[in-house]
Structures are given as C-alpha cells and as structure tokens.
Amino acid sequence: MQRHFFLLSSVAMATVLTFGTAQAQEAEGERESAVDRVLQTVTVSATKKKDVEDVQSVPVSVTAFNEDTLDALNVTTLESLSYTTPNVSLDDVGTARGTANFAIRGLGVNSSIPSIDPAVGVFMDGVYLGVNNGVVVDLFDLDSIEVLRGPQGLLFGRNTTGGALVINTGNPTDDFSYKARATFDGPIDDDRGGLNSTVQATVSGPLIEGVLNGKIGAYYNSDAGYFKNLYNGDNHGEAQTTIYRGALEWFATDRLTVLAKGQYSEARVDGPTGQNRGTFERDTFDFAIDNPGFGDSETVFGSIQADYDVDFGDGQITNILGYRSYDATGSSDIDALPVFLFHSDTELEQEQISNELRYAGTFGKYDVTTGLYYFNQDLAYTEIRYLPFATPAPFYGGGSQEHTVYGAFANVDYSFTPDLIGTVGLRYSKEEKDADVTYIRPRPACSVVDETCPTSGTNPFVPGENNGFTDSDEWSNWTPKVGLQYFWNDDFQTYGYYTKGFRSGGYNFRITDVGVFLGQILPATGGDFGFDEEEVDAFELGFKANSPDGRIQVNGAAFLTKIDNMQREVNTAGASGVVQNILNTADATIKGVELEGRWAATDNLLFNFNVGMIDAEYDDVRFDISGDTVVNAQDARLDLPRVPPLTYGAGFIYDLDLGDSGAIITRANYQYRDRIAYTDSNFGWVQAANQVDANVTWETPYDGFSVSFFGDNLLDEVQVGNDTQLGQIPFGGPLSNGVQTPYQPYPGGGTFSPLKKGRVVGVEFTIRG
Q: Are strands 100-104 and 552-572 parallel, antiparallel or unpaired?
C-alpha cells in the first residue's frame, strides 16, 4: 500500500513539473496580488434574477466564495467552511461517512436516517440534493460557494429551515484553459496513520468557436488512513475516491444557451473512527474497535440548464432539469469498543429527478421572479444490527419512500425610490410521502432495497409483534416573505425582512423499539405513524458596508427565529442498543447576532474576521427529552442541540512580491467554537474547539505554477462528528458521583463518537493556464 502512494506521488509530481516546465513562460504585464484577487467583486445567484448580483448589494445574509477566495482559504471540503463563517457548522455525521450533519443558526439534523429532510439544503448547479447522505465529499473545480443563513423557503426548490449551501461547479470557458493539482498530506504525530494523496485536473475551451464550449475533469484521492487503531495497530480512515466530471455549453442562438453538466463518482472508505468516551478521554485520539467497517458508494449526477432571453420585461426564462442517483452500503462499529457488542450494516438507494421553470424580468420599478417546481425522490434503506449480548438473531428492517413535491412561487422587488426597495414574495408547496416501514427487530434476514422486508403480518421471532406498516400523508404550506432595503449611499445599505420556512413531516426508517414507538410516539402524534411538519418564522435586520475604495468591508445581522413543532431525533436507551425516535418535541426561540468583515491594510496585507453569538431556549416542551420519564421544567432547562453560544475567528493574507522570483503568499486563520450539546438530553456533547489553519504558497516565476505548504488543525484539537450515547451496553466508564447528568465526562454505557482528523501538514503543486 505504501509503495502505491509513493508511486502515485512520483507520477503526479513528474506530470505536474514536466507540464509546468513545458508551458513555462515569464508572466506578462503587472501581476495581480492575492489581496487584489480576494477583493474582487463576488457575485451570487441566490436571488435568481436574470443577472447575478454583487454579494454586497443583496438583502440576504450570505457569505460567498469565488474561485480565488476558495483557493486562498485552501477549501477542499464543505466542512472547511465551518471555520470561516459565523454561526455555521458543516459537520460529517460520522455514523455513515459523507453524511451531512449541517446546522446553521442552531437548526440542523443529528442523524444519518435518510428519511429526515435536511434542515440545511445543499443545491449543486441549481439542483437540490434530496438526502444528507453522500453530500460531504471532496470539492474540486468550483466556480463559487454561497452560504445562506436563515430559512430559504421562497426562491429555492425545497423549503429549508436552517439555510442553504449553493455550490456552483466550473463552467466551460470561451478560451482554452487547464488546471492540474497534486496534494500530499498526513499526520506528523508519531501515533497516527499515513499519507493522503490527491491528484486532479481539468481542461476547458471551445469545441466549435462561438457555438460550443466543453470541459472535462478528473479527481482521485487515496488516503492511507489518519488514525491508529489501538485494537490491532492498523491505520484507520482509509479512503479511495474517484470523480469524473464533464460539461458542455451550447450557444444555440443569440437568445438561447444550454448548459449540460454530468458527474460520476465512486468511493471506498473505512467505517467511522468511533471513540467510546466511557472508556477513552475526550481530548485524545485514542480508540480501539474490532470492526474497521467500510463504506462503498456510487453517485451519478446531472443537470441541464436552458436560458432563453425574451423581450417581455427584458427578461429570461430558465429551466433546470436535475437528476441524481446514490447507492451505498456500509458497516460500522457502533459500540466503539474492541469487543463485539453492537455492529451495524446499512444499504441505501436514492434516486431523484427535479425540474424548475422560472422567469425573471423587469417592468419599470418592478423586478419580478416567478416559477414552478417539481421534485420526485425514491428512497430505500436497510439497516442490520448485530447485538450478540442481547439476542443471537440479527435485527433487520428499514423503510422505503416515494416523496413528491410541487411548488409555485413569485417574488416582486419594488423600487419606491432608487434607494428604497420593498420585497413581497409568496410560495405554495405541496408534499406527498408514501412510505413502507419495517421495524428493525430480530427477524429472518431481509432487505428493503431488494423488497424482501415485510410491512404487514407479525414477526415470527417476536410473537404478536407487527412487522411494520404502510402509510401516506401530505403537507401543504404557504411561505411568505416581506422586506425593505435602503441604500444610504453607494457603500452602505440596511435591510430587514420577515419570512417563513418549513420542513414537511415524514416517517422514521429506524424504528428499533416497537413498544416505545407504539406507546410514546403514536399518542404524542395523535395516532399517526409519522411526525408532523416543522414551521419557522424568521425575522432579520442587517447591514452591509464598504469603504469608498472597497478595501474595508463589514456585514452584520441580528436575527430572531421562532420554531413550532421542532423536529428532533431523540436518543433513548433500549435493548436494541440505541433508540432514535423522530418527534415534534417542542417550540423554541433562537436569537443572535453575527458580524464578518475584512480590511486590506495595504496592497499586500488583508485581515478578515467573523463573530457569531446565539441564545436559544425552549418555549414549550411536549416530550420527555431529558430521559427522566416525565415532562417538566427539567426538560425546558436543557440546552438546544447544535447551538454554540459563541463562535469567532480571525485571519490574514500577506502577499510578498519577489519580482523575478515570483511571490510568497502567507495565509493563516483561527476559529473558535463553543461547546455544544449534541443530543436533546445533553448527555451527548461536543467540547469547545480552537481551529488554526495556515498556508504558505510560492507563486513561481513560471506563469501559473505554484507550490503550497499548509497545515490544518495545527493545535491538534480533538473534534467529533457526533456524540451519541449508547443505551444498555454492558461496558463503560464511571458515572459522575454515580448519577447520570448532562455534560458528564464519562457517560454511563459509553458513547459512539466518530473522530475527525487532528493535526495535518502537507504540500500542494498547482499548474494552470
């Protein structure tokens, strides 16, 4: 295996250096510094108007990154953006690697159950990704990323209560261009794993001058595993990922442009690196598991966007057709111990198709955006649990679901004066879900994916217990938005708005304790098999300011979010290891402020900063989230999960021009995040973290060729993807004073806490032209 990595490194190095030397030439004209590149105008597509807009002109809390900014910040995964954006947490859930556990302003999901709608929506090339699974992947060939904070229930295809991530991959270019990159990194600490190698390349340009442009790209990552498994001394966290991407842009007429993009990816990775915090200390990377696990996945993604310019309102009609299929199997050591107590296998198939048709135009003082939306998704999920201490028979079950969404929306911006703009918008959404659920219980072997798991009749292994159920439901909702925006001058604007968002109800594919489900869930939901929708009312006041020369930029916002029927995945103890019930537990209020900005102190030195503060509390609790069997004031006093009271960070970029020798660009960034509760009971929690990243890049005299040395998490902070408390596992550390209390260091029964990478250093070679 190690020889493979050295061979890969040698080939990549030789390729990049040879290609770079062959193309080497002295740069012509005045060089643009890294500070100037970051100060460039960043445009956003979030308002879905005909023309993209400057991020500083839109009345939306959005942090946007263009290609130059992403390169400057060394962004390689979506998780990296957690350390540059206030009140944003883009974590990997850990149970199934690559599953998004995203939260914005305290709203997110804490589970890998695929039937839960994301609270933070991810949109790639205008297409909503219907499940959290397979979202946390390596990024390459990006044009921009937009992080929108707050509900996005009006212009986007799917309602999201927390926010949205808008990912735009690179388009084909009018001129021939290329880019190749080779990256090698790994741990420098003696007790860690091996080398992580990545090679990627794109080529773009005209195929038929003025008529057809094309682009192709490829990416390969081979990770030897960052961690050392104390059970057998093996590296853990190995991964091999391959991505192929292509795009065609056809200028059919002066009015019609068609852009088609396609992507195929496959990955083979180890299972989660689970630490049991009933056995190991939280601030260590120590772990020992007897099941290394695995995760195999295959993704096909495609989109076709057609833009047609019309005279009506000098507008544009846009249609975006999207398709995605995702197939994955996996195995995880859930007990996170070197003994066989609780292992789990999963298989998931997801297929979706969507279409958005919209019009954007201007009629005097009116800017109008309106459209129709359709989304259909089929899910099938099987979970197998092995609990030999409880029963010799494995648990089988899961669920399948067809999910259909219809939407219609309209938004009008009216200019009362050139400086005062009012916004009125309304969206109607209707969602339908048809589900077949098989309880995950001891039963004969079956597969939901293969349609062999029963949903009717009784379980032969558990006499008198039903196998599952078949049910359907639908939800419809109106989501309005009203707002005002005022430009005090060319460099300062304020805005305020009210909007509504919702997540539709649904069904739990992970019902592991039928008695709890029938006894607590059904009465709590009025006899329904599913859970109800979550509604959010959001208010925001904000400002965006620039200095006249554009070298200082400061944006701020204050927000108030009222959540009704909060959807939660409540963890309780049970004979099945971990019981996760999806419930509408409470009403809550989340309020906070956030501030971010940058200052170009000189032509070569730029500082950036961000700070976010959140206060959250329950207004009304309707379910026992504390686990003490009663609903009382103790429940209301608990901290809401995924709400850090304080996040802040600062960084700088310094560009040193060396004349004929090129330039040295130094970047460093620091980010702090407070401790957060992970579970509703607060037994699961994630400690505070100080993240420090740094990068030094030499832009060589050869035009387009650069070498970077970087370090991530240089303070070697221990962070996890989740902190789920295990129930009735007959192994674990001591309790605090013999009493089960929130935020204790050694939870009874232990935890399943998948570790993230600690300190990493590496080198990167890039050639572009």
A: unpaired
pTM of the model: 0.91
| Nearest CA among 561, 413, 408, 417 for reference residue 483 | 413
- The CA-atom distances, in angstroms, between 476 and each of 164, 343, 410, 504, 533 are 21, 39, 17, 8, 10
pLDDT tens for each residue of 505-535: 999 999 998 887 877 666 655 668 899 999 9
Relative to beta strand 534-546, strand 492-503 is: antiparallel
- In the chain, the domains with their CATH numbers are 2-768 (2.40.170.20)
Q: What are phi and psi of 293, to 5 degrees?
A: 70, 180
According to DSSP, the residues that pair with 182 across neighbouring strands are 199, 765
Per residue in 271-311, pLDDT (tens digit) is 999 999 888 988 999 999 999 999 999 999 999 999 999 99
Best CA proximity match to 502, nearest among 456, 562, 545? 562
pLDDT over 90 at 732, yes or no: no
By the 8 A CB rule, do 650 and 670 touch?
A: yes
472 torsion bin: left (phi>0), alpha (psi -120 to 50), beta (else) = beta
Residue 363 backbone dihedrals phi, psi, to 5 degrees: -130, 90
Pairing verdict, β 120-124 and 163-169: parallel
CB atoms within 10 A of CB 537: 16
Tokens of 80: 């990296």
- Which residue reads 């297929």 in tokens? 351
Q: Which residues, 6+ apart, have CB-to-CB distance to 526 below 8 Å?
A: none
Which is nearest to 383 in space by CA: 571, 136, 114? Answer: 114
Closest CA to 114 of 401, 438, 503: 401
Structure tokens at 564: 């009704």
Q: How far is CA 632 from the centre of its chain?
A: 34
Long-range contacts, stretch 482-486, CB < 8 angstroms, 24+ apart: 482/422, 482/423, 482/424, 482/425, 483/59, 483/422, 483/423, 484/420, 484/421, 484/422, 484/423, 485/59, 485/420, 485/421, 485/422, 485/423, 486/419, 486/420, 486/421
What separation in angstroms does the CA of 564 have from each of 63, 320, 481, 533?
27, 32, 18, 9
Task: Kindly tell me the sign of the dihedral angle through the C-alpha atoms of 71, 75, 78, 83.
Answer: negative
Evaluate whether 507 touches 432 at the Cβ level (below 8 Å): no
B/e letters for 113-129, b = 16+ CB within 10 Å, e = fewer, are: bbbbbbbbbbbbbbbbb
Q: What is the CA radius of gyration of the chain?
A: 26
Backbone angles phi, psi at 130, to 5 degrees: -75, -15
Task: Note whether 680 and 638 are within 8 A (CB).
Answer: yes
Other CB atoms closer than 10 Å to residue 27's CB: what's the count? Answer: 16
Block residue for tokens 């299972």: 271
Q: How far apart are CA 227 and CA 686, in angstroms?
A: 19
Q: Looking up tokens 């609780």, which residue turns up?
A: 342
Cα distances (Å, whole numbers) of residue 662 to 232, 597, 766: 48, 29, 14
| Distant-in-sequence, close-in-space partners of 191: CB < 8 Å, separation ≥ 6 | 228, 285
Amino acid letter for position 505: G
The dihedral over CA atoms of 185, 189, 193, 196, expressed in degrees to the nearest 10, equals 0
Per-residue tokens: 206: 């005209």
- Report how far residue 85's alpha carbon sits from residue 539's, in angstroms, rounded to the nearest whole number: 20
Contacts of 38 (CB under 8 A, 6+ apart): 68, 69, 72, 598, 606, 653
DSSP letter at 761? Answer: E
pLDDT in tens, 735-753: 444 445 778 777 767 889 9
Give the CA distances from residue 393 to residues 60, 291, 576, in Å, rounded to whole numbers and listed in that order. Answer: 53, 19, 12
Task: Measure Cα distances from 288 to 234, 272, 685, 731 in Å.
Answer: 10, 12, 20, 14
